[in-house]
Amino acid sequence: MESTPLHQRQARRLKNFYLMLTAFFIIVQLVWVGVPIIMAILWSVVDPRNPWSYPNVIPPSFSVEPWKYVFNYTNIARALRTSYMVAPLAVLLSFLLSLPTAYVLGRKNIPGKKIFMLVILLPIIMPGMVVALFLSRVFTSFGLSQTFLGLVLAHTLMSMPYMIRVMTTSFQAIPQDVIDAAENLGAGTLVKIKDIFLPMIRPGLLAGMIFAFTTSIEEFNLTFIIGTPTFETIPTILYSFMGYNFIRTNASVVALLMMTPNIIMLFIVERFLKSDYLAASLGKM
Amino acid sequence: MKPKGISLVNWLMLLPGVGFILLFIGSSIFLTLAQSFGLFSTTGSSSFTLENWVGVLTARESMDSLLFSLKMGILSSVGTLLTAFPIALFFRKGGKGKGMLGSLIKVPLFIPALVASFLILNLISYHGLINTILMKLNFINEPLRMLNDKFGWGVVFIQIWKNLPFVLLIVMAALASVRDDVIDAARNLGAGYLSILFRIYVPLAMPGILVSMILMFIRAFGDFPITSVAGPLYPASLAGRMHIMATLYQEWDQAAVLGVIIIVTTFFVIWSYSRLAGLVQGEE
Question: What is the ipTM of this complex?
Fold first, then answer.
């Protein structure tokens, strides 16, 4: 195809325009995302003897005092431990419970599939506080309220929608030919699971696990109602720091503690995975 | 053809996932519904009554909370969509720097809602960064009230900040299905930018737009933590009001009524979505 000089010039102009627009959007995003995070970092290193107040745009002096204070005088260490103990257990449990269900939903033609796909979304569709309050009543009657097991079950419940949806999508993506071929060659159920299903759903499984893990780390409503005051997790501690006893420096430390692992983990995973897992699995109800 | 026995195995395999969710969510929905009519009551006397409903529906606070939560739901979902749609359109065509821009935009997706509230709170609080800058530049004489404001703009802002990437991902996926040929054809036939936008992009991305708006509405409507941190002192969000009713006043039955109102609204919105989605797909 030949293009006239005018055509080329227009194309170049358009390209430059797009580049400038991209640069503009990047700057806007740097401010939009960067400034709030930088503010939190600054607040977490404010020197308590030299407080940061109105006319100063930047704290007058820095210290690690807030970090020391939070670790020495609040329950944060225990909350961190609880959070990071509940999350892996909840991920494991939701994986075990989701695997067979996702297989059936992804590979079999069963009546009422649409309804099941909706039912699976219930934990994230249902307003958190309603579930939390009345699930706590159910838990109380089972003796699960204020227990570690109850906390794990609640977190499992909240992470299952992501797990099942993402894994269903990856089960769906396995071409039937591959399975047929394996069957023709005499593969039994175990061989099929080991050599076809598990390797082919691995990326989706990883994505599902990460989503489930971060859901558990972030979970607030259910933990707040079912766990406190016996168990505190990072979100409930942060909430208490933002409530009646609002101490901005402490809240900044906890906020950073909570979001840094999340951001790192999800960025690492995104490098290895196609990022559209979430959209693919939640894009339709 | 499949042998008949397999069907039972399939149902059994559905059980761990679907059953677990149905057991816990179903029982809590059932309990909410029953308690709102005075059954399974905590106070001992359990008999069918409409008292709680009358009590809640005639209380000024509850109605104010309902209106407030509806307002937050609508404003948050519309606001996020209006912000996300132009960016999603911009992302349709690849180019230099888009990868970096994409990762930057996605950051709030990885930030928990409570942390997001805290981050934004630092900006919009009374002596926060925005007020400080505006005052240094002499745009305003005294700080603006953006946090805990009567209207709830602070909440809307936090919702948009936190959920923009989520909506963006869904809308982008929807827009990716619009083929370039269609746009070129329309342009050849003399369509302007506006008619391409409203007659091609918007209708073809409609399923994605609807899903993201529904999910946003549900989140903002049933929200508890963000509103209680950044919302007005009065009214509380519907979920917040329910929480106060149950834990502070120990009026579990009235809290259940509020719970039913939240659940019914949520399901009604989802039902209308499925009707709308059917209509949109029917047109094609």
Answer: 0.82
